[in-house]
Amino acid sequence: MESEEIIASPAPAAELERLLKETAGGGMDALAELYRRTRGAVYALALSMTGDAYMAEELCHDAYLRIWDYAGSYRAKGSPMAWILAVTRNLCLMELRKAKRTAHLTDEEWNAIPADTDVSAEDRAALQTALSRLNAGERQIVLLHASSGLRHREIAKLLGLPLGTVLSKYRRAMTKLRETMEGE
Q1: CA-CA distance, 48 to 155, in Å (whole number)?
Q2: pTM of the full predicted structure?
Q3: How confident is the model at residue 108 (pLDDT cuts 50, 70, 90)?
Q4: How far apart are CA 107 and CA 1, in angstroms?
């Protein structure tokens, strides 16, 4: 079993663009659906950046408030998921600057993987064990790729890293995950 099979696939870009447009027009139902379809990726990014499950949850909610306020400024020239994650990333960076601390996840904090995904308790435990063996950078790249469907180039831009770095960290992380999953 590979870890990417456990994480729900993201919504198509056209559907997210439609939901953003409806949200910009004041559609509460569209925002609720956007939240349902993207919450896992938004939360994963916030958790990977802050290292604090409670702060990540707060920032996740703040991100959707910001999306509600600024959905009208989204321009369909790029990936809607990248835009949503950029909003989240900016909020996380502001919070981290304010707190003047760096993110370090403990194994227990990975128990905060969103419960509203279709992941069995056994698969969740296996995923948490596998992810705990990755360093923070590898974990962040894998979660962004698997939970949001972003391409490596988009992840590199979002994180401000060279594409080669993202690719090598992803490859190394997938090797570690594969070895962990095959060993269990």
Answers
A1: 13
A2: 0.60
A3: low
A4: 21
